[in-house]
Amino acid sequence: MTRAALQALLSHWLRSPFQLAMLLAGLALATALWSGVQALNAEARAAYATAENLLGDGTSAQLESPSGRMPEGEFARLRRAGWDVSPVVEGRASLGDTRVTVLGIEPLTASSGGTSAELVTPDLTGFLAGVGFAHPRTLNEIGTSQPDLRPSQAIPIGTVLMDIAQAQTLLDMRGHITRLTLAPVQRDGLTPLNTLAPDLRLVAPGDGTDLAGLTDSFHLNLTAFGLLAFTVGLFIVHSAVGLAFEQRRTMFRTLRALGVPLRHLALLLAAELALFAILAGMAGLALGYLMAATLLPDVAATLRGLYGAPVPGTLRFDPVWALAGMGMTLAGTALAGGQALWRLWRLPVLAPAQPRAWAHAGARSLRLQGGVAVALAIIALILAQINGGLITGFALLAAALLAAALIMPLVLAGGLALGQRLARGPVAQWFWADSRQNLPRLSLALMALLLALATNIGVGTMVSSFRTTFIAWLDQRLVAEVTVTPRTPSEARALQNFLQTHADATLPMQRIDARLAAQPGQVYAMKDHATFRDNWPLLDAVPHVWDRLAAGEGVLVNEQLARRAGLRPGTATLEMPDIGVLPVLGVYSDYGNPLAQATLGLDRFTGAWPDTPVRQFALRSENPQALITALQDEFGLPGNQITDQAQAKALSLAVFERTFLITGALNVLTLSIAAIALFAALVTLSGMRLVQLAPLWALGLTTRRLAALELGRALVLAGMTLVLALPVGLVLAQILLAVINVQAFGWRLPLQFFPADWARLAFWAGLAVLAAALLPAWRLWRHGPHQLLKVFAHEK
Amino acid sequence: MTSALTIESLRKTFGSAPDIVHVLDNADLELSRGQSLALTGESGSGKSTLLHICAGLEPFDSGKVMLAGQDIAQADDSARAALRRTSVGLIFQQFNLVPSLNVAANLAFQARLAGRHDPGFVAELARRLGIAELMARYPEQLSGGQQQRVAIGRCLAARPRLVLADEPTGNLDEATGDAVLDLMLELAAQAGAALLLATHSTRLAARCNLRVHLRAGKLQVSA
């Protein structure tokens, strides 16, 4: 019985291979987008873990100096006091053709838990004699000038591991170290560290600026996008499975009448769905892997640009990822096919299959759907009032999008009813009435289209608003004509002397790492100068903010810190390390920076941290090119140490554009999936619609006119969907700008409108819908009479 | 009398050699306005095919079919569609009402397509057909007999020259079928339309002016 029944069920797909292809394509694409995004996330997180494991930082506490360096003597002093500590030197240096992070360790005292210990132990003598390690890609970038470096996949990209003495020489840090790593287990009865080294700051494991924590928002955004694309893909599956079940209603009735038990039939259909899910899931995983491999270089560049995260640009295959992807596909298929199975369970054996009965059933479910949509909209409104973090933000986004998608068929039905009321001719009247009748069959595909269009509008508006604001902000922040980065502290001093006579103004950039309002952050020094007074992008400030800052009476904070810690200029204060509590004088925008940041007047800063090296000089000059030439002549500085304003802006914009490249790619993929959903629904429906169209043909409408009406119907429905998508997309953009961005990155951007972008999207969406509707319409026109005649022939 | 339909030496085959089926083999027929003709024959004899050819729905191999003075073999798709709109009324066994329109809109549909919509005539037809109370209902809310009466009303409301009815009472019980046919004959005669009725039933065929039997592709005039 099982074999015969399964054969009968599968015969439907053999006769409708295109429908099967669409179902599999929907599932495969949904799986591909979801698993692709997960592969990207997993690869990046693996890279963070590699970086953290290098020195076992994730499990070790550390001792740091606020100025970023401490005398080497601190190490010896603490060791003599019995503390099991190991020194680390870290800094940026030019090596061969590139700049790298140099990490120097002392192998005899280094923690045995990190990757570095595993690398160094087998050839300790070689390491002490000058052998270093770097990722093969870093070695390629460095070139052949460093013969003592060996390749190792365990080292993060852009980092070179070497003996501490060598690193100190390279970084011009002789006699100094960056930090001390504490072994996890220490002897009992030691003098407490706050007594022994009161100037050093103890950073607990996982309390520093760990990459995984910093990049969480970025990955959550990616995951949300992947989930959205997966949902849109499931709409295709739901639509295809639903239509296939409706088409096979007569077959179910026959099978049951012939003695196949309902439970058995449901199990067979579930098995059929599972089989499709496994087949499509495997294809989807392969596609997802390809997609992730293609997008990874851009994601890696974004993560490096935004967070300095050392993510490699090549993808590895992880079986756990594949299993998780397959599990998601099976779960998604169960969700998408569940309703169809439920309807089969509830279907009376001899249920009529009249189209209007279907429409009436559709009307009932539409009312229910409307109720759910209203409930979701209320939930969204409540969530909008709660300032509950990123998860709440995404819940708000999901509730708003689902509410819009669920209410859409009701709004469309209302629009079509209005069209029918206003229609004058019989064909026009039929056109609107028939569109209404077929709405339930198309509504899932249209909902997918709405989600894709709204996402495109919303994300596009967010990115364009961001771009406009960012460009204006760059003009304010990058006022200095030239910036120069000294390679060593001694070079910094020499540069400062030289620039006193060669630049119109020299603005030194000094900073220390510090915890601000319990967050990882940095404190910057700002020289009192018109460059800052006239241009600095202040969002809010107390009166005479610049005078008060120069006098050391307070601190400026970036928007991220102000929002997270609730700091308002004039009323709030901020606890500054080594200084104490200072009033907050102003808040400035600081796009692209994941860290909290505070800015002090230069005198106040150097008073607190006198040994802090200058990291960069911003230079004002009437003749920047001459200044650059002079600097190169005098100091022999390579090109990557000197940047002019145009280069800096171009670099920042390039980072910005790369950041949103993946968003753009996912946008296009989501819209493509929606177009496929519509295509699948229209093609499946075209076969079922012959019965409805045949009488019209017999009554004197040509197949060409019927085909044109079918095409027009698809365009009208898509047009109405696009009109609805616009406000939904703008609401989405507002949520992204005012809630998600604020929660994820700490900055809020003004919503701006870009009608030209909407027109472009409408054009592409129209083209996609036209392409989706063209084949069924063309088939009706070319093969219409032959097909339509069969309807009458089948009457007998 | 004016000719509504003329068929001369009509040939229609299905399939290809050596399995050719001659559905219509040199068939001739003449039907004038006001006449009713019953076309009988066994299942699969080609009755429906002949009706489809007369309506310009199906092509034929050779011969001539003149509908309202026009040779449909010479007419292109648009012209054949226009003939169906203005000159032919089709009644199917399965009614083929437009499911998305209510009874009132279905009744008026073909007349409006033909540009001959007369609300008074439609209301009168609805009254005569006993469906005046059902105007707001949709097809699936009607019984088989009611649906067939709406299909007859839709056809006659357009005042066609030729009514082609394919087993119009095949889905109805005997009493209802008789009543529906009586009404169809009466209304067709009143409208001056010719009626070509395909049926299995010799009892129903006996109620028409003329009777022909289709066997092995040949049309034979019955007694």
UniProtKB/TrEMBL annotation, chain A:
Highest taxon of source: Bacteria
Claim: Transmembrane helix is one of the keywords in the record: yes
All residue ranges annotated as the ABC3 transporter permease C-terminal domain in the record: 224-345
Subcellular location: Cell membrane
Annotated Pfam families: FtsX
Main location: membrane
TM segment ranges: 224-245, 265-290, 320-345, 366-384, 390-418, 439-459, 660-683, 714-741, 761-781
Membrane-topology descriptor: Multi-pass membrane protein
Entry keyword set: Cell membrane, Membrane, Transmembrane, Transmembrane helix
Protein name: ABC transporter permease
Organism: Roseinatronobacter alkalisoli
From TrEMBL, chain B:
CDD domains (alphabetical): ABC_MJ0796_LolCDE_FtsE
Entry keyword Protein transport: no
Pfam families according to UniProt: ABC_tran
Domain ABC transporter: 5-223
Entry keyword Magnesium: no
Alphabetized InterPro entries for the sequence: AAA+_ATPase, ABC_transporter-like_ATP-bd, ABC_transporter-like_CS, ABC_transpr_LolD-like, MacB-like_ATP-bd, P-loop_NTPase
Species this protein is from: Roseinatronobacter alkalisoli
This protein's name: ABC transporter ATP-binding protein
Organism placement in taxonomy: Bacteria, Pseudomonadati, Pseudomonadota, Alphaproteobacteria, Rhodobacterales
GO molecular-function term, one example from the UniProt record: ATP binding
Keywords, alphabetical: ATP-binding, Nucleotide-binding, Transport
PANTHER family: IMPORT ATP-BINDING PROTEIN, TRANSPORTER, PUTATIVE-RELATED
